[in-house]
Design a protein that fits this description.
single chain, about 260 residues, Deoxyribonuclease I, Chain A, 6-stranded mixed sheet, 7 helices, globular, double-stranded DNA 3'-5' DNA exonuclease activity, hydrolase, manganese, magnesium, AP_endonuc_1
């Protein structure tokens, strides 16, 4: 089973890119972030014609998350939004059960500028995610938390880390929050398979960041103990970032062995 996450940066504006990628790589399940579309504007017809069912949690102009699954897999929606979400008007989390796995698709707040209310909101949202993640682990079932975490966990996850010390994606408080989440018992899929390699998932549109491979690793897969042992492969479809009118993120994916 192949599961992917992709911050599409506008599902309607980038729809040709999304459909091309789905056709070329055929993941079984896809988590999308930054739909930037209200609920009624999600391109369901095009997604269905590509061979996928979908659930989504939209928001006008900003945010928005979705889970797609090939039509042979039933999507059972479990929740949208976190328990005690600090701001329910922001569509940042959706959760479903697919093929015996609970999948939480998330778009964690950026948090800039820091210090300030956006950074405080990011930390509050992170705290609620961590509480929910802890509860999910108590069920002792396969769970995957994936999406755009807007965190570079360590210095090897960012090009020239000294330039990011005051950024909300790399602040010590945010990195500590990510570590606290992982230390509950989650496995960072990319780092399990590639513990020391330079791997990025985001390249800014400015200063030829993609051409220079001046990137960040901010899109992550966290696996519960019940699914971690099934991990076979993980990677980034970096080439998608080089396509015309593409997102500033590349799709990230994992493959799991059958149960």
């Amino acid at each position: 089973m192949k599961i992917a996450t992709y911050n599409v940066n506008g599902v309607n504006g980038r729809l040709p890119v999304l459909l091309r990628w789905l056709n070329e790589t055929a993941p079984d399940v896809v988590c999308l972030q930054e739909l930037k579309a209200p609920q009624e504007k999600f391109p369901l017809t095009a997604i269905e014609e590509a061979g996928y069912n979908a659930i989504w949690h939209g928001q006008k102009s900003w945010n928005g998350v979705a889970i797609l699954a090939k039509k042979q897999f039933e999507i059972k929606e479990l929740r949208r939004g976190l328990p005690d979400d600090p701001d329910e008007a922001q569509s940042r989390y959706i959760e479903a059960s697919i093929n015996g796995i609970v999948i939480g698709c998330l778009y964690l707040p950026n948090g800039n500028p820091t210090p300030g209310p956006k950074f405080e909101y990011k930390l509050r949202w992170f705290e609620q995610l961590t509480l929910h993640a802890q509860k999910l682990l108590t069920y002792k079932i396969p769970v995957i938390l994936t999406g755009d975490f807007n965190v570079m966990p360590t210095e090897i996850d960012v090009y020239k880390p000294e330039r990011w010390v005051d950024d909300a994606l790399f602040r010590p408080e945010v990195r500590a929050a990510f570590k606290n989440l992982v230390d509950q018992g989650w496995t960072d899929a990319i780092r399990k398979l590639y513990p020391t390699e330079t791997i990025y998932t985001f390249w800014d549109y400015f200063r030829n960041a993609y051409g220079r491979n001046a990137g960040l690793r901010i899109d992550h897969f966290l696996l519960s103990p019940e699914v971690e042992g099934r991990l076979l492969e993980a990677g980034v479809d970096k080439q998608v970032r080089g396509w015309e009118k593409t997102s500033d993120h590349g799709p990230v994916w994992i493959t799991l062995a059958d149960e």
